[in-house]
Specification:
Helix content is 43%, strand content 16%. The protein is of the alpha+beta class. The strands form four sheets. It has a four-stranded mixed sheet with strand order 1-4-5-6, sandwiched between helices.
């Protein structure tokens, strides 16, 4: 089983985009440094990672390094990432089944070269089924992400009672920025804060238009805590008051949502809430 996480991406000059490890890699290793490959078999866990580099660490922060990797990551073997092409073929030469999912980056190009045409099966098909079952510590992190996100949404709604008309969408985004950072959380995805007709754009991320009295404001924002994300969408009036038509549509959606939530129980099929919400919405 081979799983990798991407190298860092340059934003411009010598500045990088903030790095986030690939979710599958993070789940299996708990390791958050870039440009890393993990290889698992029934007998061994091998990690390829960046070596210590005092000159770079002055700029980018401390690296774990090869010497500490075995104990910290509970690996059996650790190699510098620049030895991947030499060591990976030896690690997989006796494998009867290889699980691996390609990602478009230079590191995965090296992995493909090492595979030398060997057939692979999708790791994600199996791993994502595992990830559906959450352990207690995962549930704690998911709940924390949800709680922080809820608090931020409530702060935005409270501001609407005072009045958001005349403000810009990005000023509402700043409410979420502050609440997330205050709780050591990050945005789980690019925030969508869409006033008026912008709410009809499914992935509207410009967030730079003025909010007008009488319009609805759609907010699709959630935070991430240690790799676990919340995802919340709410819509409410910019000036805190629904028009008759807005209230009617809102009530239809709310009733469909509550009915969908009410059907959720152990053993129910996953698509059932969607079917109930769709049926009620279409009927209305």
């Amino acid at each position: 089983m081979i799983v990798s996480t991407n190298p860092q991406k340059y934003r411009n000059g010598d500045t990088h985009y903030p790095f986030r490890p690939h979710s599958d890699f993070w789940y299996l290793t708990g390791f958050k440094e870039p440009e890393t490959v993990a290889v698992f078999s029934k007998k061994h866990y091998t990690i390829f990672l960046q070596e210590k580099n005092p000159a770079r660490e002055i700029w980018d922060g401390e690296r774990l390094g090869i010497a500490k990797a075995l104990q910290t990551l509970d690996a059996n073997q650790a190699y510098p990432i620049n030895e991947l092409k030499a060591q990976l073929p030896l690690l997989i030469k006796e494998a009867t089944t290889l699980y691996y999912d390609f990602k478009a980056c230079a590191l995965d190009n090296d992995i493909i070269e090492c595979l030398d045409g060997a057939k692979t099966q999708s790791l994600g098909e199996h791993l994502h089924e595992m990830r559906l079952i959450k352990e207690d510590n995962e549930i704690v992190l998911m709940q924390k992400a949800a709680d922080i996100s809820i608090q931020a949404h409530q702060l935005a709604m409270q501001q609407a009672k005072i009045g958001l008309a005349g403000l810009f969408e990005y000023e509402v985004v700043s409410i979420f920025d502050a609440e997330f950072r205050k709780n050591n959380a990050e945005h789980a995805y690019t925030p969508i804060v869409a006033g008026g007709k912008n709410g009809c754009i499914l992935h509207y991320i410009k967030n730079d238009q003025v909010l007008n009295e009488g319009d609805l404001l759609l907010i699709d924002v959630g935070c991430e805590v240690e790799g676990y994300a919340a995802d919340i969408t709410r819509t409410f009036p910019v000036d805190g008051k629904f028009s008759q038509a807005q209230r009617q549509i809102y009530q239809i959606v709310l009733e469909a949502q509550l009915a969908a939530i009410a059907c959720i129980k152990p053993g129910e099929v996953v698509i059932k809430p969607h079917q109930i919400a769709s049926k009620l919405s279409n009927k209305a």
